[in-house]
Amino acid sequence: MKQQISRLSPHQNGKVFGVLMAIGSLVFLVPFFLVFATMAPAGAGNAPPLLMFLFMPVLYLILGYLSVAIGCALYNFMFKYLGGVEFESSEENKA
Questions:
Q1: End-to-end C-alpha distance for the chain, whole angstroms
Q2: Which residues pair with 86 in a beta bridge?
Q3: pTM for this structure?
Q4: What are phi and psi of 88, to 5 degrees?
Q5: Ramachandran sector of residue 75 (left: φ over 0; alpha: ψ -120 to 50; beta: rest)
């Protein structure tokens, strides 16, 4: 059976994607922070900027939310002119 997605919720999808982006950024930021912290030469001014590593997940969250929310709003606007994303689904027969 073919179905179309007629509306995407900008706020809900933006929230989910923003949080996933923030958590996903930690996969890269934590190891990089540890490498930079261990390789920094001794001295007070050469430590990696901790504020940057705390700010980046927040930035990813905000930009992820905004990009998905805008994309969903554009999809909802264009749906009436172009139609929605079409997919085919079927029910699984359990014996």
A1: 21
A2: 4
A3: 0.77
A4: -115, 135
A5: alpha
